[in-house]
């Protein structure tokens, strides 16, 4: 069935019917999960944003295949706010989003023995398994979003640069003022090799 366009006056001309979409050349894999019952939320979020993130980004599989990694922490307070809307909501404590250029990149990362060895035991320390996956094809970002190289324009959260990979953490403050980028570390804008 053909798309039925409506009569609409666009606020953003880059989104009008005649514009070429700004599709990003990546696949986004979202991984939803809950904490295990034996730990509190502070422990769950703290471990995930430090130890688990460090284990993940340290693997060659991550560096070779992951373009972008974001952690989305859903606190009990945020769950309550979502419930108050009267709509359905995703009842998870966290969502990890990983961007890859191709599905083969995802499979190489996901099936990596190095990745499994580094993270399997750690997942059992804080995540209730199994996890729930959602894969999305390249999509249209919001107005003003200029692609994978300009992600920092649209996020106000902490950033860790690891071998050119930006690690975004929502609802946390990871290594304030420190950015690592291809072998150099920046402390408040001053780069050190």
Automatic annotation (TrEMBL):
GO terms for molecular function: oxidoreductase activity. Residues 38-128 form the EthD domain. InterPro entries: Dimeric_a/b-barrel (IPR011008), EthD_dom (IPR009799). It holds the Pfam family EthD. Belongs to the tpcK family. This is EthD domain-containing protein.
């Amino acid at each position: 069935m053909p798309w039925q366009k409506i009569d609409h006056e666009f606020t953003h001309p880059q989104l009008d019917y005649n514009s070429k979409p700004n599709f990003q050349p990546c696949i986004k894999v979202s991984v939803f999960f809950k904490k295990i019952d034996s730990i509190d939320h502070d422990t769950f979020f703290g471990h995930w944003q430090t130890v688990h993130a460090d284990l993940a980004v340290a693997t060659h599989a991550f560096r070779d295949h992951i373009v972008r990694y974001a952690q989305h922490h859903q606190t009990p307070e945020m769950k309550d706010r979502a419930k108050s809307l009267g709509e359905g909501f995703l009842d998870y404590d966290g969502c990890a989003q990983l961007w890859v250029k191709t599905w083969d990149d995802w499979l190489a990362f996901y099936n990596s023995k190095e990745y499994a060895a580094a993270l399997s035991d750690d997942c059992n320390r804080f995540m209730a398994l199994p996890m729930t996956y959602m894969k999305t094809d390249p999509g249209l970002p919001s107005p003003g979003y200029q692609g994978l190289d300009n992600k920092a324009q649209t996020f106000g959260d902490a950033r860790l640069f690891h071998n050119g990979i930006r690690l975004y953490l929502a609802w946390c403050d990871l290594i304030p003022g420190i950015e690592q980028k291809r072998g150099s570390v920046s402390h408040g804008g001053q780069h050190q090799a």
